[in-house]
Amino acid sequence: MWVFLIIACALLLLGFAVHRLGWHFLISGYNTMKREDKKRVNIKAVARLIGYMCYGMAGIFLVVAASYGLGFDVDIPVESFFVLMLVLIVATLWRAQKYDGNIYDEDGTIRPGAKKKLIPLFVVIGLLLTVVPGLWLWFSQPTEVTLTDKALVIEGSYGETVPYDEMEAVTLTYEPSLARRTNGAATGSRLTGHFRTTSGEDVLVFLDQDVDVAIRIDWSGKPIYVNTETHEATEALYEKIRMK
Q: Is the pLDDT of residue 9 over 90?
């Protein structure tokens, strides 16, 4: 919750600095323009637009903090916040070009030879609409676990190969109480990567929080918590590991 609140406050301060204080040097692209090019930009309109974007994103993080940290009985999928934020960023980037007199003339027509200046915008928007959702989808996939003759193999991002002869204990348990993420991803109900528990233990997790059981593997490396798509499938995987 506190992370969301800190991000929200930072966005509010950033939006206020650009929108009200006139700290236009914070606007990427504008701060590197030539002086004559800056004169053709309606920087007050651009600053207002970016300020509104920051305020909107801050509002989204405040709602997330309220939903997940303050005990409000609001069941809103985190994906909806992600989509809303993505739409807000893309819309702001697209609209901001209308205030650039180096690209559009007074009638709103693209100046001759200015189309090439829009290429970076299309590249950024393309990445936002493809790569970012793609990574989100990748981290949201169920954990794939393969049992070979010599090792347990966890596929995907942060994947790990655990030789059977290095396993010290395998326990069917519950999801650990996690304090924070140290190097990982939290997408929807899925937690993937390196986390720290409330007791201070560093663990590697591949968990679906909607599944009420997990397998803990103690071995020569960092302790691992893993489950699969259902309670029953996780129990079946546990029995197979024990047989190894």
A: yes
